[in-house]
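Troubleshooting: if your tokenizer reports a length mismatch, compare your output against this known-good record of 341 residues.
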Amino acid sequence: MAQKIKLSTIADKLNVSTATVSLALRDSELVAEETRIRIKDAAREMGYIYNRRAASLRTSKSGIVGVVVHDIMNPFYAEILKAIESELDRSRQTFILSNHYDSVEKQRDFLETLLQLGADGVIMSPAIDTPPRDIQLAADNGMPAILIARSIPEVELPTFRGDDAYGIALATNHLIGLGHRSIAMVGGADNTSTGRDRYQGYVDALEKAGLKVDPSLRIPGPRTKQEGFEAAVTFLSMSQKPTAAVCWNDLVAIGLMNGIYRAGLTPGKDISVTGYDDLVEAAISMPALTTVWNGQSMVGRRAARALLDRLNGSEENVSGLQLIKPEMRIRQSTAPMVERK
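Known-good structure output:
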């Protein structure tokens, strides 16, 4: 069996101290850059593997951060995760990812695993109906948590997300400004802060414009392209004949537009459609989707930075809800109102 490479083995080969090797492998600025490069090259050639468990016993830090979201296949979360990874990389933190798919049990198992591994912290978009005690469990065991995308009202933790009520109001006001008066809301539900806030933004915009809020114009539920596509049947059969749709996110909007096309109508001409999140796909859809930028990269970057600051004992820790202000992106999927026949 091959002998395990030790720090002392590398030190003896390069005629430096074991302490110098240890510092160099941790990228400490106490070691000159040229020496760091020489030591790291030698370690790589000799097959040295960093013993994270031993290091964590010395420093009380594992260098591991947990990240748990609803579903990485959703591009919204993928964009957030890309920003989180970029920020954590700068501090040489490794993250372990889990999808909870809105299962509180799956999320709880992941949190317990992180505690068993001695993870330094966790960034999470909490599952629907997450009990505050689950989040408190992490805090009580010395694992700070940062929330993203969704809020838990009873939990006072740093939470980063877009101002959903304001953002959907932007989209609704855009359609009202184009002359639309019968505007449907497609997607989302009231069992998340996101769903509640986006619907409230839609209601507020209509009421401020003096328009009646008709609950029958709401199609709750859809969150994916497939569900948006399927919702087109309901949308097109509404007795109120809506001329526009405010969609819960870009995926629903793109799916709905495909369903509208399938029915022989043209989005952006016969019916106006807005999305939400401004995913990369929104700008290249057919037609290009009018949507609302929701600051995913900023959410990820600020959440990771807040966690790192806490781990480093920074006195400038943020607390409570931190809202990113959305911005409108007007493209080809919306146009002045045309009466539906």
